Amino acid sequence: MAESDWDTVTVLRKKGPSASQSKSKQAITAAQRRGEEVETTKKWSAGQNKQHLVTKNTAKLDRETEELHHQRVPLEVGKVIQKGRQDKDLTQKDLATKINEKPQVIADYESGKAIPSNQVMSKIERAIGLKLRGKDIGQPLEPKSKKK
Q1: Confidence at 121, pLDDT banded by 50, 70, 90
Q2: CA 87, CA 25: separation in Å to the nearest integer?
Q3: Cα→Cα distances 40→23, 28, 43, 103, Å
Q4: What residues have CB less than 8 Å from 140, skipping those under 6 apart?
Q5: What local confidence, expressed as pLDDT, does residue 41 receive?
Q6: How far apart are CA 99 and CA 126, in angstroms?
Q7: How far lies 2's CA from each of 5, 6, 9, 11, in Å?
Q8: Is residue 136 over pLDDT 90?
């Protein structure tokens, strides 16, 4: 027990600055004065509630140049949707509710402003009973035969 010296303290590791201290403006300028390499990066949309990210490709397509443009639903298809909906006495809202979409989606498809989606198109086809894709647009949809 004689080798134990109660007056000396051995430090095994020194605790570095906390994350908030190392990110402060004072800590950064002090490190730059000492000649240390400091890397600073700004986080994109940090602290914001952004759920939908806009990528560079989307921005390019939004500009809609000659070679890059969105393909829209043809007006012919919009007219067929409108006719089929009216034949079944459905409003845009009723049709949208039937296929679990927003009424604005139906309005966009009918006016030719929508970017076509095969899922939405097939839902509308089944709801109004008319083909919207292929060569025979506007023809009645053949019921699928049940396989035994």
Answers
A1: very high
A2: 68
A3: 9, 9, 10, 46
A4: 129, 130, 131
A5: 72
A6: 9
A7: 8, 10, 16, 21
A8: no
